[in-house]
Amino acid sequence: MKRFALLGLPNTGKSTLFNRLTGMSQRVGNWPGLTVDLISSRLLLGGRMVELIDLPGVNDLTGYSDDEAVVRDVLLASAFDGAVLVLNACQLDRQLPLALQVIASGLRCLIVLNMADEARLLGVSVDAGALAAKLGAPVVLVSAKRMEGWPRLNAALNQLAGFEGSAVRAGLERVPESWQAIDQARAALDGCWRLPPVLPTLLTEKVDRWLLHPWLGLPLFFVFMALLFNLTYQIGTPLQDGVGGWLDWIKDQALTPALSALPAMLQSLLLDGVWQGVATVLTFAPILFVFFVLMAMVEDSGYLARAAFLTDAMMARLGLDGRGFVMQLMGFGCNVPAILGTRVMRERRQRLLTMLVIPFSLCSARLQVVVFFAGILFSKSQAPWVVSVLYLLTFVVAVFTAWVFKRRYRGDEAFLLEVPPYRLPGARHMLTRAAGEVSAFLRLASTFILAGVVMVWLLTHIPAGHGQTLAYALGEALSPVLDPIGIRAELAVALLFGFIAKEILLGSLAVIYGVSESGLGGVLAHQLDWASAMSFLIFTLVYVPCLSTVAAMHRESKSWRFAAMSVAWSVLLAWLLSFAFYQGVHLAR
After folding, report:
1. Binding residues
2. What digits encode the pLDDT tens for the residues 316-339?
3. What does the alpha-carbon distance between residue 254 and residue 496 come to, in Å, rounded to a whole number?
4. Residues placed in the known binding site for Mg(2+)
5. Half-sphere CA count of 393, side-chain side, radius 13 A
6. Domain at 2-194, CATH class
7. pLDDT the model gives residue 30
8. Which parts are annotated binding residues for GTP?
C-alpha cells in the first residue's frame, strides 16, 4: 500500500480537503516514535490503495516549533510515495516557499492551490500550468469547500498514485533556508501569479470595524461566547437528558431484571459501578458533540483568530497568549472540550500551561453545587452576590496558577497570527470534525471513568469493621488533614464521588445523609454551620474538576506525571484556600 503525506500551512483548508477526499473514514493513531496522534485514512487512487496521513500545519520545514519538529521527524523516519501540499491561492507570495522546500527534499509532490473561489473574488489570477512548469511539479487549482476543480485534482492524485518508483524519505539536508526559499518563490511567481492593483473592500473589513474595535471588540466577544455557551446547553441539555433517560430505561427495564438472580453485592457492582461508569461517559457525548460543532463554526469562520488577537496583550503578562484566554473561557462551559481545544497551540509548553489553568474555570457541573449551597446558606438577595464572588475566585486562582508556573512552562514561540477572511463553514466538515473529537474522547474516557467509578463503589461497599465502609474509614483517616478546614468525614466521602464527576456530588450527599436530593438542603443547613459549608464549597470549586478532565489532560499532554502534578496542585491550592477561610472565620469570632 502506498503512503502519501498531506502537508500545508495553517488555515489553508487542508483539513477540509482531507475530509472531502476521505469522508468519515478517518482513524486517529499514535505515530511510531512520536508522542502525537496523527489522522490518516485509506482511499483508492488510480486502482491502488493509498494511506493519506494528515500532518500538522507548518510554515517552514526549517522552523523550530513543536509542529514543525513533528513534521520533520515523520518525514525523516518514514518513506512516502508522494506529498500532497495544500496552499492558499490568495497568499502564494508567503506560502510558496514551503512548496519549494518540500520539492527540494526529494519527495514527489502534488501542489494543490486551494480557495480558488476566494482568489476569484479578490481578483487574484493564477496560471497553474506556467507555475507547474517552473516548479517541475503538477499544480491544480481547486476550492475544497465548493469542490471546484475536483476532476483535475482526482486525475492528478491518480497519476501520483500510479507512479512506479519506490517510496523515499525526505532529504531535509537539501532543504533551503527560509530566506532562500522566499527568493526562489518570488522568481517562480513572476508572470504566474497576479494581484489586482487595489484589492476590493470585502464584507470582512466592514465587520472587523466593529469586531476588532479597540473598545467594543472584547465586549462583543464576551457576548458571542455567552451565546455559544447558551446554545451549547440549550441544544445539548435536552439531548443529554434524552440519553440519560434512555440509559435509565435500559437499566430499569433490561439490566435490573436480567441481573436479579445474582447476589445483591454483585448486582450493585454491575449496576452502580460498571453501568454507572458507562452511563457517565455516554451522557457527556451530546453536549460535547454540540460544543464541537459550534466551536468548529466559530473557528472555521475566522472569528476565533480575532478573539485571540483581542486578548493577547492581557494574557502575555501571565505567560499565555490570546488563545489561552479563549480556552479558559471555553472551560466555563465544560473543562473537557476546552482542554481538547488547546490543540490549536503549536508549542507544547504553551499548551501545558494553558491546560494547568483551564480546570479552575467554573464549569456548569460545579455551578450546580455553587447555586445549591448559596441557596441554602444565604438569602435570595445575598445568594447571587455569593455566586459572583465565587466566580471571581476561580479567575483569581487561574491567574495565580499561570503566574506561578509561567517560568517553568514559558513558551518561546512568537505568537504569529493570521487573521483570515470570514468564511461560511461547511456543515459536513463541522459534523465530521465534531464526531471525530467526541469519538477520540470516548475511547479514552470510557476506560478511565469506568475504573474510577468501580473504585469508588468498592470504597463505599467494602466493610472496614465497626459497621463502617472503607470510604468512611478513609474519611476518618483523613481527619487530621480535613478537620483544620472544617470538612467532616461524611463530606470527605462526598468529595470522593465528586472526584469522579461533580454532577453526582449532591446525589452522594443525599445517599450519605439518607434523604432525597429535594430534602438535602434542610439537612445540610441543620448539620453544618455556614463556615464549614463554605469551606467545603471552596474546596469543591478548586480541587480536581472531574475524572473526565484528568483523562483529557493526560490524553493531550501524553504524560501521567503532568496530569498527576495538576491534580496535586489543585488539591493543595484548594486546601490552602479552605484553611485560610475556615481559620480566618474562627479567628474573627
Report:
1. 8-15, 19, 22-23, 33-37, 54-57, 114-117
2. 777 777 777 777 777 876 788 788
3. 29
4. 19, 22-23
5. 22
6. alpha beta
7. 44
8. 8-15, 33-37, 54-57, 114-117
| Neighbour order of strands in the sheet with 27-30 | 27-30, 37-45, 48-54, 2-8, 82-88, 109-114, 139-141
DSSP assigned state of 274: I
What are the DSSP calls for 413-473, one per residue? -------PPP----HHHHHHHHHHHHHHHHHHHHHHHHHHHHHHHHHHHSEEETTEEHHHH
Whose CA is closest to 563, among 572, 554, 555, 571? 554
255 exposure class (CB count in 10 Å sphere: 0-12, 13-18, 19+): middle
- Looking at the DSSP bridge assignments, the partners of residue 125 are 194
- For the four alpha carbons of 468, 470, 476 and 482, in that order, the dihedral sign comes to negative
From the list 47, 57, 74, the residue with the least C-alpha distance to 12 is 57
Instruction: Give me the average pLDDT of each 10-residue run along the chain (589 residues).
Output: 92 86 59 58 88 89 77 90 96 95 95 94 92 96 92 95 89 90 94 82 78 86 77 81 88 91 86 72 78 81 80 77 75 79 77 92 79 78 79 86 87 64 78 78 65 71 77 82 87 80 72 63 81 90 87 87 94 95 88
Domain ranges, ordered by start, for the chain: 2-194, 217-411+430-588
Cα 575 from Cα 485, distance rounded (Å):
7
